Amino acid sequence: KNEVEQSPQNLTAQEGEFITINCSYSVGISALHWLQQHPGGGIVSLFMLSSGKKKHGRLIATINIQEKHSSLHITASHPRDSAVYICAVSPGSGTYKYIFGTGTRLKVLA
Amino acid sequence: DSGVTQTPKHLITATGQRVTLRCSPRSGDLSVYWYQQSLDQGLQFLIQYYNGEERAKGNILERFSAQQFPDLHSELNLSSLELGDSALYFCASSPRDRAYNEQFFGPGTRLTVL
Fold it and tell me: Fewest Cβ atoms closer than 10 Å to its Cβ: which of B2, B50, B71, B90?
């Protein structure tokens, strides 16, 4: 079992839909990160969370430390949101690497 | 633009060869991380350097090595290349060597081994 699990693996939505991507982890963490990888391959950091909720534009990220679970929400989805969304954790064990989920491939249709 | 640069963007080579990938971190960042992204494995941590010293090792093969130079740029050397080494190689940088780090990713180098 992977230390970081994401669901769903693939998601197709119609423009305007509300989208939720889930991430569960099994290790102690100091932070959780949501990353976006566009079809060209580049990776962009969307959020870094250690508690609560963060919002940036149409994107909202939440984390529940007790349940070891995070969600990324996209409101009013748009075709330009089509990308792979990756959850990554910074373990709290003193190592500074990221541990990655397998990613969620999102396609938003016009 | 994250401020992290990687060269080359694409690299095509043959099995058994050796290549060097280069990464320049954001100005002021002391930590550099290398990651490999292959189709079947997803993103995997390879190695981290902080201010010239190796800090953490992940799933890095013995055929691979890295170093960070005094000007803080880093190089990842891949030798005796195999078909399975074909992947996207990312480097990322962060200001310090702390667990609560945000990392900034470079655009990646796509390596194809034929």
Answer: B71
**What are the average pLDDT values for consecutive 10-residue runs of chain B, which has 114 residues?**
93 97 96 90 89 90 96 97 96 79 90 96
Given phi > 0 = left and psi -120 to 50 = alpha, else beta, which region is B80?
A: left
From the number of C-beta atoms within 10 Å of its C-beta (0-12, 13-18, 19+), residue B52 rates as middle
Interface test with A, best of B40, B96, B100, B111 (most A CBs within 10 A): B100
Give the C-alpha separation, A62 to A73, whole Å. 8
Q: Is the Cβ pair B99, A97 closer than 8 Å? A: no
